[in-house]
Amino acid sequence: DTGVSQDPRHKITKRGQNVTFRCDPISEHNRLYWYRQTLGQGPEFLTYFQNEAQLEKSRLLSDRFSAERPKGSFSTLEIQRTEQGDSAMYLCASSLDGLEYSPLHFGNGTRLTVT
Amino acid sequence: KNEVEQSPQNLTAQEGEFITINCSYSVGISALHWLQQHPGGGIVSLFMLSSGKKKHGRLIATINIQEKHSSLHITASHPRDSAVYICAAVSNFGNEKLTFGTGTRLTIIP
């Protein structure tokens, strides 16, 4: 078990470019979450998958944002036409449904800087 | 007003002191997480609780559903406890949405 891994760790992009991040959850985990964290703030929920189904999507997720989890394993988060306000740490977490105590396992995040 | 509020925002204490961090929420929840975030961003899940009290080592978490309040206590605090502690409420609408508090930055001085 290597934990939740996210790629890349850092991404610097120019405004208007598209970016895609990847999250590989713990292998048997069926729940996968995306969060965004800006400096000095707690994480904000973006979206949530149960297996391959995207069950919830925050209002924060504009139509420039899209997330997929095609086979119920890894997930991608794409941001189109990036804006400077998209600069943040993007965190992925996974957990296993059905346990009384289902801890969240977080990845180390992808830090996005839009110049 | 945030749906999940934590206090204090910053806390500095001497090594050995008993630490309490509070979390109040206004949304309906099915459970609440306490998380620890170290410099560099790594987040670790400490507890998930839906009632009562849980203990793990020097950490104790309590929740009062009626009062919509949870506390995280650290006994015999140590400099390695220095981190940001975040509570996150799990929505009870069946969508597992997490609403995070803004965190409490704890610094333990040797």
Structural account:
The complex is a heterodimer of chains A (115) and B (110). Helix content of chain A is 0%, strand content 49%. Chain A starts with a strand and ends with a strand. In chain A, strands 2, 4, 5, 6, 9, 10 and 11 form a seven-stranded mixed sheet that branches. Chain A is an all-beta fold. Chain A is globular and about 40 Å long. Chain A contains no helices and eleven strands. Chain B has no helices and eleven strands. Chain B has strands spanning 4-7, 10-14, 19-25, 29-37, 43-49, 52-56, 59-64, 69-74, 83-91, 98-100, 104-109. In chain B, strands 2, 4, 5, 9, 10 and 11 form a six-stranded mixed sheet that branches. Chain B has a five-stranded antiparallel sheet with strand order 1-3-8-7-6, with no helix packed on it. Chain B has 110 residues and is an all-beta fold. Chain B is globular. The chains are: A mainly beta (115), B mainly beta (110). Chain A binds chain B through residues 31, 33, 35, 37, 40-45, 48, 50, 55-56, 58, 89, 91, 93, 101-106, 108-109, 111, and chain B through 4, 33, 35, 40-45, 48, 86, 88, 95-103.
Continuous helix count of chain B = 0
Termini separation of chain A: 36 Å
Number of helices of chain A: 0
Radius of gyration of chain B, rounded? 13 Å
Structural class given helices, strands, pairing of chain B?
mainly beta
The greatest inter-chain interface is formed by: A-B, 27 and 21 residues
Mean of all residue-level pLDDT scores of chain A: 88
Described by its quaternary structure, the protein is: heterodimer
Major beta sheet summary of chain A: 7 strands, mixed
Query: How do the helices and strands follow one another from N- to C-terminus of chain A?
Result: EEEEEEEEEEE
DSSP strand tally of chain A = 11
Instruction: Give the rounded overall mean pLDDT of chain B.
Output: 89
Shape of chain A: globular
Helicity level of chain A: under 10%
Strand content of chain A: over 45%
Structural class of the secondary structure composition of chain A?
mainly beta
Annotation, overall tally of beta strands of chain B? 11
What is the CA-atom radius of gyration of chain A, in angstroms?
14 Å
Percent strand of chain B equals over 45%
